[in-house]
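3.2 Worked example (two chains)
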Amino acid sequence: MLKLTFLQANRFPNNTQSDNPKVYFIPQSQGLGIDSMGEFAVSFELSHQFVDETGKPAPFIQIANALEKAFNFNFGDVYKSKARIFSRKPYNLTKSLDYLRTLIVRAGRKQDEKR
């Protein structure tokens, strides 16, 4: 079992870093918006590969809270974000994941061209 834990910087005596990670999520209308992080949280929940401290699959709200802390943003109402995802047309349900897939495929093609 793989357990991902974000340790707080102040738990280490000689560490002068702040408690917040230095990675920020800046939502944009083109590409990834707030609901894209909701899409990730839903996907992670459905995968049952993200677990809580007892080893049970983590519920959506815990995953969403972890994403907020990890990337320094706020969903507002995370359940509204989840509802917006499921209200999408079937071909748009994985819009954010499809966007990221496209970026990876393009980068792979560019690397293939360099070889």
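3.2.1 Second chain
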Amino acid sequence: MEAFKQALKHSGLPPKVLKKSLVLGKILENWEKIVGTTLKDWTKPIELREDTLIIGVAHSYLVQSFTALNLEILKRINALFKKTHPVKRIQIKVYPRLYKEEKKVKRSFNKSEVEKCFKILENLKDPELKEEFLKLFKVYFSQ
């Protein structure tokens, strides 16, 4: 972060843009501390407009939850800055591209494991249960 600050200071940016960039950089650096581990993957500070922080959320249902936390988040953000309180308001916007999909893991099974599972399946007496497990195994072992 220190290298980023130095680069910005020597960039020749107007003071107002420089200040906004430094504030947003500090917020980004501390985002997990501000919103917690659960929300950090679903939210992101997008922009600082004057004294309003624009926060993107991955889903519309997070808007209401996040709005309820506005005051607490403002306190945590402004606690990062010693003398000033650069953020006075928070605005929430939905940004679906913030959603991080889980990566599918390719499973590998050895032949004996698969055969063992199907052998256990053969011993099930309940035909409905057996059929459901058969469907499940076919899907599970085909991946």
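3.3 Remarks
The helical segments are 2-9, 15-29, 31-35, 37-40, 61-68, 70-79, 111-122, 127-142.
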